[in-house]
Amino acid sequence: MIIAEQVAGWLSDRSGTHRGVIDIFAPPPALNERFEKMRAWAENEARPLVEAADADVHTCHEKKIELLRSAARAGLLTGMIPGLFGGKGSISDFGRFGGTTFLPFVEALGAVSPGLSTLVGAHYLGILPILLAMDVPNGRRLLKPICTASPDDPKICAFAITEPGAGSDAEDDEGGEKAKLGTFAKKVKGGYVLNGRKCFISGGNLASVITVFAALDPKLGIHSWTCFAVTPDMQGFSVGRVEDKMGQRASPAAELVFEDVFVPEKNRVGRENDGWRLNGLTLDTSRPAVAGIALGGARGVLRELIAWIEEAGLRQDRYMQAELAELIGRYEAARALTWRASGTFPPRRDLSAYAKFIASDTAMHVASRAMDLLGEEGGLRRRRIERLYRDIKLTQIYEGTNQINRLAAMEAFAVHGVSPLN
Amino acid sequence: MNETGMQVVDEELVAMRAAFVDTATRFAGRDVASRVGTLDTVTLVAEEYATLRGALVEAGLLGMLAPESAGGMGMDPGSVGPVLSRIAEHCAGTAMLMWAHESALLALANAAAHGDATLDDVGEDLLGNGLVSDHSLRAMRRGEGWQVNGTASFVWGAGVAGHAVVAAETDEGGLIALVPAGSGGLRLREQHVRIGLRACPSASFIFDGVKVEQSIALSSADFAATVSESRDQSLALVGSIACGNARGALRRAVGYARERYQGGDVIIEHALVRGMLGKSFADLRAAEALVDAALARGGDDLVLAKVVATRHGEQLCLDAVQVFGGNGYMRDYGVEKHLRDAKMLSLVGGNNDRLLQAVVDAHKHEGDWP
To answer: CA neighbours within 13 Å on the CB side: how many for B195?
Structure first.
């Protein structure tokens, strides 16, 4: 038999048994077991609570607390905190694998509910400035109580940059220069006094540690931004309104009020006036995760769509096949970009921004088209896609609107002349 | 239209439409805007609907498509579209509730015209419409009347309507029937919880030997013509609602963009925001023009208008929320409701692509392309 025939036979014998020669969409092997446990938790335990939180705005606060307790019991709130700070995560894994250590987790949670993924993801977002500033004393002091908390009284972190008058401004360089900041820190003996407000802070009303960014000097504005770890027991700190949102109701968004809040010097995270850089690094790291939340949502949508196609007996329908292929193709393309961005360490601003806006725009398209394909049924809550559609919409907005992300991606090119095709 | 295809201006009609649009605009600002929050829930508030129905009757905005002989106002769909559109600027769900009533009347009027039957005064009850969506109803003669079996998957207005208009096939053709809400054998299968248009409840029903007293029986050809005319005209009116809903969202977005400062300037000065608003303006104008033309001309354009208006409407609302940034996602700014309503409007009558395929199907072998 000539070699060509042998090769052809070998390939055709193995049709349907394709495997990734390199599986780029998988968690690092060491995290596999934890990943599978988390996925089972999301599907079996979290889903009913998420759906209950979405359905009733009056009881959703209690459902969120229940979700956090359940997440804590499953080890989800400490799994990514480095062992150095009392958690079960590894700094060296983060250095070796970058954001791919957490991307599969946010994707899998997002497939059940992007809101659920935000609830857990925002906790780690709150921790990121401490990790990225390599602030070991604060990490040990502030994160250990989180890691040792009883699951019945879970502790989480939150990240606070957005202000009522400075939303997008806090998300890109040009906006930052002209931002109308409203939260300031005044240096006093032994620490700082914070005044101002932050808004739309995910998990802000539930957090026991909040990394807050405030300007030290009104004249320097964003260039004097400094990060502080605020705890809710500090006098003058209060939670304002908790938002009633279109979706992502598994995750609360709250206004935080700072009225002469004294923050001891030891609670400063990183260096003075280094907040803008730290914020940029945090967003560059977390934007691929937001892309993962969106793509998780898209995966959830596709799963529901496929189930409906089966139920409706449309598997052989050529139109349905073509539509499904189009949606899955776009999803896979966005996912490849997201994993590339996430696997780049230190993160690259342009790649992170591309991943964020391409993935969330793709996920929104997938959700919208899937609803279209179901017709009127697509709009019904029991079909789940409508909740995912509402949830996914937020991924186009938070961590910088997708318009801001487009500008952020081009900053290196426009300002510094760096080739965008590196 | 005259023989050359030019639109002939009927000044009396233009004046009447303007008067109705004025009434609708006042009604929307006064009676609808104040109820939006209450009606945009998944829980029926019976008293609210009774008050709303009373206000609609008082304003002369209920029964616009019923013939004057049947106690209505004898308007045509082209005159009702702008009225629904104005209401939808504030609440597309309320416009949809009016749509359910008017499109049910439209089906009765079309059936009466085809069947040479008379249409009784249907009174001031709210009517529901179960004819635009999937249904598999079949009627059989039982004595003087008919007995209906099968399912109706989406009856718009169900829960608050006193009667629903449905279409059921018979051995001879079919009938357009007026079914009272409490009929024996009519079983609620599901009261829908939906993403949007919540001010207009909907439900699916099982018809298990439902006796029908009021109906218009039609031959096979007349039945098919009545169902398709009624459905297509109703869908174009959904296009009117989509345009109104989009206009409301765009108005909010422009207002916000003029006032919101970011990067040292109001955001309407930002190129990307201007780009989104400009595209929205263009798409809205195109959709409005097609809907108006379709309602005037009829034919295939009716379905095309629904598809174009609801597609543009959804994209416009997605962009409007985007202009608001984080605020747009919060319920108290109101723009997210426009998006939820826009998405549901695009689903009314089924998958838009299937609707377009049906238009092509009708021209596969003969007749002019639209």
So the answer is: 33
State the Cα–Cα distance between residues A349 and A345, nearest whole angstrom: 11
Shortest distance between the Cα of A349 and any Cα of chain B, in A, equals 20
Give B40's DSSP letter. Answer: S
Which of B276, B347, B352, B354 best probes binding to A when mutated, by most A CB atoms within 10 angstroms? Answer: B347
Could you tell me the CA-to-CA distances from A345 to A53, A102, A132, A339, B301 in Å, in that order? 36, 13, 12, 12, 54
**H or E segment and range at residue B145:** strand B145-156
Distance CA(A195)–CA(A185), nearest Å, equals 7
CA distance A28 to B127: 60
Contact B41, B198 (CB under 8 A): yes
Q: Which residues of B touch A197 (CB under 8 A)?
A: none
Please name which of A396, A312, A395 lies closest in space to residue B351, comparing C-alpha atoms. Answer: A312
A399 neighbors A360 (Cβ within 8 angstroms): no
Q: CA neighbours within 13 Å on the CB side: how many for B229?
A: 20
Question: What pTM, to 2 d.p., does this model score?
Answer: 0.93
| Residue that has been written with the tokens 């295809």 in this structure | B5
Maximal CA-CA distance, chain B: 77
Record: contact B195-A381, CB cut-off 8 A: yes
- Distance between CA atoms of A76 and A289, rounded to whole angstroms? 16
Q: Which two tokens stand for residue A244?
A: 């009633």
The answer to whether residues A192 and A268 touch, using CB atoms and an 8 Å cutoff, is: yes
Q: Are A324 and A305 in contact (CB under 8 A)?
A: yes
pLDDT digit string (tens) for B158-168?
999 999 999 99
Helices (H), chain B: 11-27, 36-39, 46-59, 77-90, 92-115, 220-259, 271-297, 301-324, 326-329, 335-347, 352-362
Reported in sequence order, the residue ranges of A111-270 that DSSP labels E, i.e. its strands, are 157-160, 184-188, 191-202, 209-215, 225-230, 237-242, 253-264, 268-269
CB A170 within 8 A of CB A161: yes
Residue B195 and residue A174: Cβ atoms within 8 Å? no
What is the rounded distance in angstroms from the CA atom of residue B288 to the CA atom of residue B284? Answer: 6
Strands B186-191 and B202-212: antiparallel
DSSP 3-state of A191: strand
- pLDDT tier, B44 (very low <50, low <70, confident <90, very high otherwise): confident
- Residue A399 annotated to the active site: yes
User: Each residue of A40-99: pLDDT tens digit?
Assistant: 999 999 999 999 999 887 777 888 999 999 999 999 999 989 999 999 888 887 777 788
CB contact under 8 A, B325 and A393: no
Using CA atoms, how far residue A51 sits from A65, A70, A114, A156, in Å, is 14, 15, 12, 22
Say whether the ipTM exceeds 0.90. yes
